[in-house]
Amino acid sequence: METPSIDIQNIRAKYNNAQDPYLLEEKLPTTDPFALFDIWFRDVASQSDLTFEEINAVSLSTVGKDLRPSSRMVLLKAYTPTGFSFFTNYTSRKGHQLEENPNAAMLFYWPKVNRQFLEDKKSELVEQAEREGHETISKPHSWGGFHLVPRYFEFWQGQSDRLHDRIVFERDTDIWLLKRLSP
To answer: What Enzyme Commission number(s) apply to this enzyme (predicted)?
Structure first.
């Protein structure tokens, strides 16, 4: 293989953080991670001056019984104070992996606002009534939803100085513990 002609190590984008550049704990609008995700999601959705394609597109990572990780893009179809839902074919690779191992991770990346959001969660099948409420056309019986219940939230705000702001919420019984990972 030839040496790549692109100098990958020096590809860097300057981040635009004019609005509230750091995600400081004392500036957080809430310490409820679900509410904070809602604020971020609505903020991205309201950015009419930026063109976002499918802001609900999310990378879903799963691992089956073979312990081989797999990631793919899915579309988030709902989020509530209990978790995040998407729909798929239960007989697909991700459907089988979630059946074999209900642990999964979702990663949202919104590059135009230099933000990403990561969740570690456990999946549950969406109830039939809830699934039917989202269906507008006839789908095979093997098509349905998963509701992912978070145990870990990470909010990441990119910074041009590369001291990216990272805030984590981890579940401890009935409360969410907040901690800073960086800087």
So the answer is: 1.4.3.5
**How far apart, in whole angstroms, are the C-alpha atoms of residue 181 and residue 168?**
7
- Tell me the per-residue pLDDT of 36-60, one tens digit each, with 9 for 90 and over: 999 999 988 888 676 778 899 999 9
> How much helix, strand and coil, in percent to the nearest 5, is found in the chain?
20, 40, 40
- Considering its fold, how many domains does the chain have in total? 1
Whether residue 10 lies inside any domain: the answer is: no
Tokens of 163: 């001291």
Please give the residue range of the domain that contains residue 89: 29-43+55-182
What pTM, to 2 d.p., does this model score?
0.82
Sign of CA dihedral 167, 175, 60, 29: negative
What CATH number is associated with residue 118? 2.30.110.10
